[in-house]
Amino acid sequence: MSRGIENCPYHKELNAAYKPFDLTDPFPFYKKVRETCPIFYSEELGYYVVSKYEDIKAIFGNWQAFSSENAQSPSKPIAQKAKALMDSAGLVGLSGLSGRIPPDHTRIRRIVSMAFNLARIKKLEPAIREIAIRMIEEMKDGKSEAELVSALAYDLPALVIFKLLGVPDSDVDQVKSWAESRLLLTWGDLDEDAQMMHAENMIRYWNYCQKLVSDRKTTMQDDLAGDLVTLQAEGHEITDREIAAICYSQLFAGHETTTSLIGNGVRELLVHRESWAAIKIDPTWIPKAVDEILRYSPSILSWRRKCKAATEVGGVLIPEGADVLMVMGSGNRDEAMYENGESFNIERPNAATHLSFGSGIHFCLGSPLAKLEFKVVLEELTARIPTLQLKPGQTFSFAPNTSFRAPQGLQVQW
Ligand code: HEM
To answer: What ligand 1 atom has the least distance to the C-alpha of 100?
Structure first.
């Protein structure tokens, strides 16, 4: 029989202890939630918080009842002036894939998957390696210490996505600064003037993506935008606007998430030194280590859904209209799924079943690219700076928000 949240005797205690914006070390709290009241209602957020692996998977898997429409809605309402400006440029409600639902989502995702396939990703490997080597050598050059997030983790994924999309090197700095505005406008805490400035930048970036598409119609290039234009010409049903929206969202989807994977991942390997030693001696362990890092220390700790029809999950009735926060960072350590889930173990046989890339129809399209980027970084880092270690005495901090566990810095020495 389904029960309401109010029956959970720990509800009050969990509410008092929950610090949804502090991502420093939320894992002991998640464990407590799983063991006491696996779905509770956070009064501070106004969200149902879901902590068990099976329950999160069920919600990801039920797109009819749990819509992704709120997944990327701004954390602070956009001021009327900035909204009107974005509306006039056709930016309000624009989504590549993640905010769409079938049948549109199915149609577009099928075509994008044909272009953004393993062959296209494999083609990027030499460029990824070249960028990684250049950045590691610059970081190392004549020095014995560095801050690894700014020296390596931050720029590398953006440069890779620009290669994927076909943005020429000469445009990279400009386009990057425009694209960062999207993150600030969606997740930041901006006043009205700052919102206007960032809205203008987003329009510039959107116009740039539209031009990428129209340029491919006159001069074909071997990149993702070119592949999508070719598929369109072959009769696959996708509009210019939909292709531009894919390009527009790709940078957002694949930049900071991969930066955090590299930053969090190198930190975990240096904290658990035996794992760093193991991949250094035998790099064939690197792919397993990448999966375990994704499970243990995910870039996105939690993700949102809107309940469209009252549905029972894990014995709790989630009412229609409710906002739901799926805590993948908790599900990934659920002892019902992972033996000794709280321990870091690169030999874990089922690490790849983690929820860090989501599940179901919106499962991350860029997951093979993110994993490849981090694999190449680790191969080059272990070979070029094998004595890498953490600088002692540092504290690790993360930008305050509910979802993105982005390390603010990582001081390393060798
Ligand atoms: C560590 C890095 C990454 C993480 C943790 C991550 C995480 C996620 C998650 C959780 C979702 C599911 C969203 C939902 O269900 O609402 C998702 C979707 C998506 N991701 Fe990623 N992502 C990463 C890297 C990338 C990269 C590198 C790209 C592309 C270059 C990318 C492109 C996408 C796209 C296009 C979707 C939407 C798919 C759809 O709605 O059908 N991601 N990602």
So the answer is: 40
Maximal CA-CA distance, the chain: 66
Q: For tokens 């949102």, what's the residue?
A: 304
**Which pLDDT score is estimated for 3?**
58
Question: In angstroms, what is the span from residue 257 Cα to ligand 1's centroid?
Answer: 8
Q: What is the mean pLDDT of the chain?
A: 93
- Dihedral sign computed on CA atoms, order 304, 306, 311, 315: positive
- Chain-centre distance for alpha carbon 48: 21
- Left, alpha or beta for 315 (phi > 0: left; psi -120 to 50: alpha)? left
98 CA from centroid of ligand 1 (Å): 8
User: What pLDDT sits at residue 4?
Assistant: 65
CA of 36 to the centre of ligand 1 (A): 31
pTM of the model: 0.94
Q: Ligand 1 centre from 155 Cα, in Å?
A: 18
Give the model confidence (pLDDT) of 379-404 as tens digits: 999 999 999 999 999 999 998 888 88
pLDDT of residue 178: 83
Q: Cβ(356) to ligand 1 under 6 A?
A: yes
From 364, 371, 403, mutation site for ligand 1 pocket: most ligand atoms within 8 A of C-beta: 364
CATH fold of the domain at 5-413: Cytochrome p450 (1.10.630)
Is any atom of ligand 1 closer than 6 Å to the C-beta of 190? no
Phi, psi of 56 (to 5 degrees): -65, -45
Identity of residue 251: L
Q: Which of 258, 357, 371 to mutate to test the pocket of ligand 1 (most atoms within 8 A of CB)?
A: 357
How many Å lie between the centroid of ligand 1 and the Cα of residue 177?
A: 21
What pLDDT was estimated at residue 399? Answer: 83
Exposed e or buried b per residue across 90-110, where buried means at least 16 C-beta atoms within 10 angstroms of its C-beta = ebeebbbbbbbbeeebeebbe
pLDDT in tens, 289-340: 999 999 999 999 999 999 999 999 999 999 999 999 999 999 999 999 999 9
Of the pLDDT bands very low, low, confident and very high (cuts 50, 70, 90), residue 156 is very high
Domain boundaries defined on the chain: 5-413
pLDDT at 1 > cutoff 50: no
Alpha-carbon separation of residue 298 from 63, 233, 263, 303, 329 (angstroms): 23, 39, 11, 12, 6
